[in-house]
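As a point of orientation, let us examine one representative protein, giving the amino acid sequence and backbone structure tokens.
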Amino acid sequence: MSNEIKTQVVVLGGGPGGYSAAFRAADLGLEVTLVESRNTLGGVCLNVGCIPSKALLHVAKVIDDASEMASHGVSFGKPEIDLDKIRDWKESVIGQLTGGLDGMAKMRKVKVVNGYGKFTGSNTIDVDGTAITFDNAIIAAGSQPVNLPFIPEDDRVIDSTGALELKDVPEKLLVLGGGIIGLEMGTVYRALGSQIDVVEFADQLVPAADKDVIKIYQRYVKDKFNVMLSTKVVAVDAKDDGLYVTFEGKNAPAEPVRYDKVLVAVGRTPNGKLLDADKAGVNVDERGFINTDKQMKTNVDHIFAIGDIVGQPMLAHKAVHEGHVAAEVISGQKHFFDPKCIPSIAYTDPEIAWVGVTEKEAKEQGLKIETAVFPWAASGRAIASARTEGQTKLIFDKDTGRIIGGAMVGINAGEMLGEIGLAVEMGADGEDIALTIHAHPTLNESIGLAAEIFEGSITDLPNKKAVKKK
């Protein structure tokens, strides 16, 4: 490869946002160079994040489903865990997707340069000795797990990447952080045989979600995880026989507790300070975030930024849409990133999913809202599936009747969230959803039934808005 490359667009980072930006720009007729530090495209998400975790969560679900069938008249033997085969399965999933990306890059004539890219000027980037001169740049360099200063460097202390390597199944695992990543990996390791403790500094798991939704999840997993809320870890002492963890807080054990492994999952930090962006004149704040406008432009007009590096929520699907906008603006289109809602999902068991304004956010913003909740205990499909713990909640603007948000907890909740997101984006009101005929019996019809509760037309439950007889 030549040590000098001239390109119309350089994309720094090959994760979902980066490769989507590169492919969209190429489809719009631009010459594109994509810089990626890994040997495969896909970034954290495909290689050590979203995708491998879902492969392992599928394994966990099959194990749990087989176990639960015993109470319904079908018994299976105790599962035999072959970690090598599970790892092979996970790697095959990653390989299929990353291989597909390589093929699409070649098909679109996107030049891929492997290595770490750093700015050397307002129109130049160096990638391990290769100089790239560009007209426009899209920064999609992502984020990395937060490291805590009091946690020792020890092979038994792992982050999400280490957890996904699945080197072994510890007898006793502490999950430090009760957010989405920690709970997902806790779900996997519990199914494989680990005893799981979860410690969370906030007073609830998944702090961004509404309390009523999380209460249902916590009730379902109370016998599966030992959860310590309003509690923090203050010290970890690495000894030959284990990691001794000291806690403080409302539910802290009085003495240090021994664990075989500790999974640190307390969030992610952006990679903005690793790019020498100041040499290009790009402003990076003290936390490593890069501020952009709604066209994804930084303070330097021809340099754009997308994904985790521009701020919360740090989600792949947000980055993809931001990447499309950046590419389209570079090509001359007057597009903007201005979604009404961005979905969030915890792929736990049961799944936790929400989109749009939460009830918590509505109260903080002083919005007048009305909620409608349909309990899955009244869902024929949930009853037939022996999973009635869930619920569907819709949140409406009280003045206009338009839906502004919604949340679900239960099996496959994440797969059903799209209808609520579309309704928010389209400005649908309760009647629009209630009059849409949903197939029966499905879990999805709980969305229509929740809208019927709001409209006062529900017949599957007592109707609080029924006309009182004279």
In short: The first helix runs from residue 16 to 27. Residues 128 and 168 are 35 Å apart (CA to CA).
